[in-house]
């Protein structure tokens, strides 16, 4: 399948290298070449790894260290540079001499630092052009590809493999890289990660064009502070959002934020209202909070898109129902009216149960066999013809009395899997909440830490589905 | 100290009863009289507990069960009713006969259920007036007072005591009661909790007047969906917010939410814009999300108010700095400009460190002894004359290498304690993030789950301090 690997994109050698040169110090520590080599070995990267250092290192983790790029036996598809900024131009020339055309410039001290750094960054850009080199960075934590184990994380994350998934995420910050986000602990399925740092050359537009045709990627999340070429950005977003859900967190939206962004990335932010209007035109979904960069794509990656905007809700509490309706109204969702059949069936079960939000709280003190009724309630609501998606609120009690019933309820839903479900778990014991969360997520049902975010996830999914069908 | 116990308030017998009648079933389970008695005993309540049931129970948990309220040897200050709604009027009369004047009506099936329930609720209100009885409820999870162990939680929370604190919280939902929120696990200090349920009689205005003069209460958090007497609510908020930080989460703010609120609480919601303007007039702070009901008062309870709006920031990442500036602008905060002295001192430490956000990320790979520099950086920024408050971002690395340095840094701050600090901890290991969070919080420094919420907490604190000084 030609389409599965977008080989004609400049990012291909970065994500699918058959060999990598790691240029830096190999002293053990929290950062540097040693950490990169260890991460690649532990992550199961099958390509060739060539450590490069002109100093006294002979060997690192069983691999020979080469004194310079040109000593590498074959060329390398990509090189990581973790060296002092002022040595970068020289090493780039050495890389070019050795046939290396793709560089991850982890090194900092460029436009984000000071005027001298900005000058150096300009020099690097010009040199790269003349040498035919493409760059990710500088000032980047680099990339990771969970699919082939190419995870050259320059900071020690303490873990090296994580759950493979269909989410691709890129940013102007290392806050999305494995040393900053607990992908493994949160059972977060991920495919490709890319921090463009100061993005002196390649940027999110290249990333979007790359993942657009990457069959491993189904959902895309982008953090951006500055956009270099607004026209290209819009065109690319438009094209990609037609194929795959595309979410964008734009920081630097206030004047103060934009100025700060300019200083830490060395480039200019664009006006927020223009950006917002642009997003709406393209069909990309705009995010508001940092953690949504992870939370929202996770939802899209595991749940189908809804066919309409009517949300069902099963809950223990009227107040969260009210919060859900408030939040739903903000995202274009409306409360579903159950069909006569399901309404009657639920009313027969317990008086007052036959409408959304289906509040099972009052039933609890008198219910004899919760397991027997829970799956019935959950499937009745989700399968109702008037329900497009479900917000489910679960009380994890102190002793886990109903954990089995909840899990069985979700297993019954899983057999259908045709409508999205967002879940919030609360309760008096953090351990019980975490345990149930883990059980539901391991069955493919995302659980959110806030009730409002469940509704927002459903709302974004609805808006994406609606927007795409209108554009197609 | 007369002021310390507001005895002339109708809520006094509810929070400070010397005796309580528990009227309901005493079958073991997740809900009911048995759970209440157990909770009171385990929580260390020192008053008399009188279980009441006309059936075959003789004894529960070593306490004699009385067949009716009038058999109780002395009168009771308060009674909890966990009985079928239709029996409530009769039992109220029996309570009145036995001299009981305060009732927590846990029973549901009133105005929140259906028309018949609404009729019954009206009957209860009229009866209470004629009998001189005051009611919390119906449809309530009741109250808790951590200060005297009066924690008659009707649902099994699995824990009974929690950290005493100066926060008082009231609501129209049981989502604030111990069976719903993990007060113990989250080391959340709390004083008084009150769910008014359908609030057919006493409501948040009574609560506000009660805690206004309660010396145990320093911070107040209110969840409200409907307001019965807008004028009184405004007057009370105005009066209380002058004395103590008062936060309000108003749900039912959209048309859909308001309709749902009316149906589950049996009363009417008021227009959101009027509510918002009213809050601004009174000096109360408005909250936006459910979890802020807990998160924000926790911050006010442990941190001093800032003297101005200039926030300092120490961070590992420029991107979160940009997010902080965006969020700060929404709440009236501006980035602090460090004084020449601290700026120079920080620049001498590492080039580029001398301005806010103070980004220690670039320094990390080259720093030899982190412990030696961290406390110095943190105290320099917080103690700077141009800094009113601090947003601190911490990277908890995979191996906890710097945990000791972080804790020592905060201990150095603790000696000052004159400016508020909000902290966000992130990292590649959930365990390490939790461990460090626990260590900082046990030293009195609140840690938030989202970076934006740190800034919002500082912003609310600034707005409260500013608003109060303008009103005084």
Q: How would you describe this structure to a colleague?
A:
- The structure is a homodimer of 472-residue chains.
- Chain A folds into two domains: 2-299, Rossmann fold; 303-471, 3-Layer(aba) Sandwich (Rossmann fold).
- Helix content of chain A is 38%, strand content 18%.
- Chain A has 15 helices and 19 strands.
- The first copy, chain A, has helices at residues 12-15, 33-42, 88-97, 115-131, 204-212, 230-243, 255-265, 272-282, 292-302, 318-330, 340-349, 370-383, 403-414, 430-442, 451-471; strands spanning 19-24, 48-52, 59-60, 63-64, 78-82, 102-105, 134-136, 143-145, 164-171, 190-195, 219-224, 246-250, 285-287, 310-315, 334-335, 358-359, 389-395, 421-426, 447-448.
- In chain A, the strands form four sheets. A six-stranded mixed β-sheet of chain A has the order 8-10-9-11-12-13, with helices on both faces. In chain A, strands 14, 15, 16, 17, 18 and 19 form a six-stranded parallel β-sheet that branches. In chain A, strands 2-1-5-6-7 form a five-stranded parallel β-sheet, with helices on both faces.
- In chain A, helix 3 (88-97) packs parallel to helix 4, helix 5 packs parallel to helix 6 and helix 12 runs parallel beside helix 13 (403-414).
- Chain A starts with 11 loop residues before the first helix and ends with a helix.
- The relative contact order of chain A is 0.08.
- Chains A and B meet through helix 7, helix 10, strand 15 and helix 14 of A and helix 7, helix 10, strand 15 and helix 14 of B.
């Amino acid at each position: 399948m030609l389409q599965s690997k977008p080989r004609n994109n400049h990012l291909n050698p970065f994500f699918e290298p058959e060999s990598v040169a790691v240029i830096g110090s190999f002293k053990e520590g929290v950062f540097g070449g040693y950490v990169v080599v260890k991460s690649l070995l532990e992550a199961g990267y099958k390509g060739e790894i060539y450590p490069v250092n002109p100093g006294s290192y002979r060997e690192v983790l069983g691999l020979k260290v080469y004194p310079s790029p040109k000593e590498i036996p074959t060329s390398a598809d990509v090189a990581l540079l973790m060296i002092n900024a002022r040595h970068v131009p020289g090493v780039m020339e050495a890389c070019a001499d050795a046939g290396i055309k793709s560089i991850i410039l982890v090194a900092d001290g460029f436009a984000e630092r000071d005027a001298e750094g900005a000058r150096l960054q300009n020099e690097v850009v010009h040199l790269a052009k003349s040498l035919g080199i493409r760059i990710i960075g500088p000032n980047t934590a680099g990339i990771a590809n969970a699919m082939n184990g190419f995870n050259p994380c320059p900071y020690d994350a303490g873990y090296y493999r994580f759950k493979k998934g269909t989410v691709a995420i890129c940013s102007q910050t290392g806050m999305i890289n494995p040393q900053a986000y607990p992908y493994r602990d949160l059972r977060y399925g991920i495919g490709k990660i890319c921090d463009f740092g100061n993005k002196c050359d390649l940027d999110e537009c290249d990333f979007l064009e790359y993942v657009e045709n990457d069959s491993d990627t189904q959902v895309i999340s982008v953090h951006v502070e500055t956009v270099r070429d607004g026209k290209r950005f819009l065109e690319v977003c438009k094209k990609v959002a037609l194929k795959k859900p595309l979410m964008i967190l734009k920081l630097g939206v206030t004047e103060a934020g934009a100025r700060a962004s300019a200083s830490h990335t060395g480039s200019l932010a664009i006006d927020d209202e223009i950006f917002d209007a642009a997003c709406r035109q393209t069909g990309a979904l705009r995010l508001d909070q940092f953690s949504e960069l992870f939370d929202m794509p996770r939802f899209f990656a595991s749940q189908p898109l809804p066919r309409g905007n009517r949300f069902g809700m099963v809950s223990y509490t009227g107040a969260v129902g009210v919060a859900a309706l408030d939040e739903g109204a903000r995202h274009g969702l409306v409360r579903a009216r159950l069909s006569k059949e399901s309404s009657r069936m639920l009313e027969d079960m317990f008086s007052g149960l036959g409408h959304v939000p289906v509040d099972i709280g009052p039933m609890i003190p008198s219910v004899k066999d919760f397991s027997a009724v829970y799956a019935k309630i959950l499937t009745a609501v989700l399968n109702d013809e008037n329900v497009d998606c479900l917000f489910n609120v679960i009380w994890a009690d102190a002793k886990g009395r109903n954990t089995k019933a909840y899990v069985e309820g979700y297993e019954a839903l899983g057999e259908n899997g045709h409508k999205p479900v967002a879940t919030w778990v609360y309760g008096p014991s953090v351990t019980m909440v975490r345990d149930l969360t883990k059980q539901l997520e391991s069955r493919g049902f995302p659980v959110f830490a806030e009730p409002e975010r469940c509704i927002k996830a459903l709302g974004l999914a609805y808006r994406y589905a609606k927007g795409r069908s209108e554009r197609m």
